[in-house]
Amino acid sequence: MTLFESERVWMLGKLLSQVWIPNFSNRLVLSPLERKVQVVGMAKLMCENLEVKESPTMWPGLLVCIMETLVPEDASKSKDEVEAQDNDEEEIAFDSAFSKLRMTGSGEQDPVPEVASETLFLAKSLADLCASQPGKYPNMIASALAGRPSGQKELQGFLAQAGVTLV
């Protein structure tokens, strides 16, 4: 491994473990396309990047981020709980220049048109990853999602919908 490659691995680890994963917020309002792109990108990074696959912190952290994107914790709360929480939060206002700029976009273009469904893509990517090293990843998945029973249940639904199993 060259010095450049070792620095790249170190920078990726720092970026994911100290910036992306701890500061990830599922509270962002994402359009369906933004959610799809985010999930596909994180799934590719999680399932195709050797450094991430071998990391005991980055891999589970990315899985939790993906599941928080697909299954927000607010989805399990009642409408009254969400409204009470929203009332406690600070209002963020945007000026009209920002609104005009946001609305003048030429429409969203899908950067991953070959992916029909982000949930099916995630399920198939995880199944392929698990098949490459049987027995390793199902335990990591279970421990990563241990604090999110709704995430475990939803992931099982994604796998069933894709017609794949994790080995």
Automatic annotation (TrEMBL):
GO molecular function, one term: small GTPase binding
Organism domain of life: Eukaryota
Exportin-2 C-terminal domain ranges (all copies): 11-146
Name this polypeptide is given: Exportin-2 C-terminal domain-containing protein
Organism of this sequence: Ectocarpus siliculosus
Lineage: Eukaryota, Sar, Stramenopiles, Ochrophyta, PX clade
